[in-house]
Amino acid sequence: MSNTAISVSDLSKKYGERNALSHATFEVPLGTVCGFVGPNGSGKTTTMRMLLGLISPTGGTGEILGHSIKHPEKYLPRVGAMIEGPAFYPALSGSENLNYLATLGGFSTDKVQGLLEQVGLGERAKSKYKTYSLGMKQRLGIAAALLPNPQLLMLDEPTNGLDPEGIQEVRDLLRTLANNGTSVFVSSHLLSELEIISDYLVMLRKGEVVFTGKIQDLLHAQQPLIIAKSENENDLTKIVEIARSAGHHAVIRDGAAHIEGPKDWAVTLNKAAFDAGITLSQLSPQLPNLEETFFEMTGDK
Amino acid sequence: MWRVAFAELRKLRRPTLLIGTMGAVIFFSSLFSSLLFILIDSPQGNSERGRMVGRQVLSMSSGAVQGFSSVGGFLGIIALCVFAAQTAQEYTYGTLRNLLVRQPGRLRILLGKFVAMKLFALAMIVVSAIVSISASVILAPGAKVPTNLWFGADGRHAIFTTFINVVISVIGYGTIGMVLGLLLRSPISAISLGLLWLLIVENLLVAVKSSLESWLPGAQLRIIASGGARTGLVPGITYSHALVVGGIYVSVGAAIASFLFLRRDVAN
User: Do A90 and B93 touch (CB under 8 A)?
Assistant: First the structure.
């Protein structure tokens, strides 16, 4: 039995001359939460569509739960998915929409009310879908994805339209599912959220995989930063000059000097700043977070 | 396939669709049958396209279903709209991806939807038959039309064969609607094109060259519903000719649409 939830090799999709995805190779281990990130148009949704059998790859291979993506009927009964936002029949209620999908998939309709309550829609189960807010639609989409008691959950931007409380609930739900053995493959623009919940990461840029692996490995591989703030903002330029003269890359961003260098060098900087008559109000070595790493790797900012 | 059909029936039985469709069926079935008897002496005719159906014809064993067979084409138009809308809206709502994730067998989805819509159409035809025949029975005495042959052995046979003919015709119209829905992927485009062709283009073509009636798809389905070429402009279009030509149109259309549905990427 394979120990990967998702495994793709050289997976490609071309639309005419445009490469939507180019030779993507990555694996998602079973039982992990894997963040799937990349700028708009980088190929995330295309990849998910291929993994769900909605579109055919133009090259490469893939396996989901040990079965080839050429035979989605073998794994889809154990996969829950919501891609490109929720899509339901507007004239049917939330519970009618889920009953429809449960009947279609051969699942018991008895669990529908429980799922609606799990995602916070219990009281609006009988309301028509067209009367739902964006956040409620998103919750219904998540409930639909949970219908098959999935071994693998694939969610495309599940927190779109949710309020902070809803985002927290989704985060908790995904963590709980992963703790119970469900593999989660989730794309989101909220990188800080992904950093909290994800164990693994697949990062795309212009249709190509630029990183795949443990999220901590990615962050630890980045050059550490020293953030320095001065009481006098004019002194930031001097701090940057001191760092550069010592051979470190340094920029001023968000009212602070960001200097690439090992954390030990902060002591040297502190002394050099003191000698130059600069009073530092903050001096903190830190690892870049996922958002900073993302921008660095995708060149998006 | 049956799971898809049962799921689809959940959608088709929603009150707005069911009551709206059945309301239209009841209204037009009673209207078509009533006009046969109310306008029986009118020089402008009492049936479709100004055709005159006299007391002699109405008093025959097939008299009870004259109205029902006339409304068959109209039932077909309703079926075309329902089939086209129910198929194409999966694309416009984006729900097709949900369907394919829960049931990846594309042919099963297509067949399941078709079975469910056929059952819906069958319910529509049964309601129409009951309303139409009931209206005929109620109005016949007032129009001095004898009804003693209507429910004898020949009469029951006429009701049965007309019912089957209307079913074939309506399913044919529905299949055309489904094909248009699959090809155009938009309910408005599919219904508009279907109605434009069946109600306007075909009539214009026949008006310009009447022999075309033998080869146009809508005309064949109308002829099947009426059991032969009684309603057409061209005499002698046989039931079997209409069945073969109509069957070819429907089969070829269904084959092309199914092939595209099975192969096409679902990218919306």
Answer: yes
